[in-house]
């Protein structure tokens, strides 16, 4: 008999199943969303409470605090590089000083507010007198020419103005004492430029001073190498952001410095000058210029092999430490900024070209007439004579204009113009000295018929003293002209030294020609009782040394007639020490000295100093008597 299931298997009882996974995740999300909403509402409630607190209860205090400070960008001064001579002696460097200043109106107002709260305090005038008295006690009655006595300082402190510098250059330690004692006094960083040798080499080194339109004031080169190399010397300022007190950007709130970009210090410059030689030559030039009555005088000393400027002196200089007293004539560097007609020193071009081209030998005898005609001009020698025999050496030893022009005509115009270019005339030397003039050489296609009667004897063209000295450097250096330079190297703050790239040399004549010309020009310093055998510059001779050189006398232009003057001259001399083994070349120019003056004695003085200073060996043999 079948049961209720009609023989089928009994059914299993139904059981309660667990929630499915998707449904469980959905419930968890709802819980998290609810919690998030509760937290957001809580945060908004807290923010609202804080906002009510700030805008309500703390509004006045926070507003006052905000007014008292603000973010300020400030420059970080870069240390300016020094200027050194070739031996590391300082010609210019910077030291830190402080400028003390006051905000008189603000100081009076703040003091009056304090006095209103405390009537035991003295009046502002009495307080200012107290400050002034302390400043005089600390600084003395004068700082670098600025009066700092009690009366002067009191007068400044009580002026009715917004800002006033009390004193420019104060030692940092003394400035700190004053600022610490009196909150009214502010201190501002300054980098003072120092020139320890006063006027020595000032026409070259130049001058730098504060640039007050920048905060803090930076040092800017205004003259000379300080100006031409300003970017390199100055470096690059840094930058920072700080919080400062409202109304005074110099009052920095402590520990607020941020976004700092460090300053890059400037590099120092090592010049080719020797400070001792510069001192000696500058004194000699100054004394000799005054002795001869010349308007001005200059001298240049070059290393014959490197072209480096060992000394460059002018009789008129200035003290950078007392710049305000300098006149326009003192601020120039005539050795490179003044051009003149060189006169007979230019005859070395003809000599070099003629020897190089094999037209003459030193002992070739020429019959020199008393005059020569070139186009519409008749040129004579400085002394009257008929036709006389003269060696090619004698033409230059005795400085014959006629003989020089005869030789130049053999050289030819095109070749002569080429030699002027090789000697570096008519363009700047690129020495590194600012304000350098190029001089003037008329281009060949503009020569008139008489031009070739002027140029070989040093008229109708102009040059600087540095260019003239460079011509003789080429002959001293076996025919290779090394363009002169004044900057030797750049020196980093870590002492690393990078030498400036040397200029490209120019081959002017062969070594054999250069030596021959040097030997010929020894005749210029030759002395003899026989006038026909005496050179034009015996006063330049130096005992124990062979000296080659050339005198020059060039007529200046008379403005009244626009013609050459018969009484006003440029007097020049260029010489080589020693001629048989050159070490130094000296060029000299005197502007309008008295009658019958010569620059040869000044060369003798300078050459004598150089021989001793640098222990130049004496010549192996004395200069032989040359047949003139």
UniProtKB/TrEMBL annotation:
Top-level taxonomy: Bacteria, Bacillati, Actinomycetota, Actinomycetes, Pseudonocardiales
GO biological process: any one? cell wall organization
Single GO term (MF): penicillin binding
> Which residues lie within the region annotated Disordered?
1-25
Chief place of localization = membrane
Residue span, Penicillin-binding protein transpeptidase domain: 297-606
What name appears for this protein in its UniProt entry? Penicillin-binding protein 2
Q: Name one Pfam family in it.
A: PBP_dimer
Q: Where would I find the Penicillin-binding protein dimerisation domain in this sequence? A: 76-244
This protein's GO cellular component annotations are: plasma membrane
- Key word Cell cycle present: no
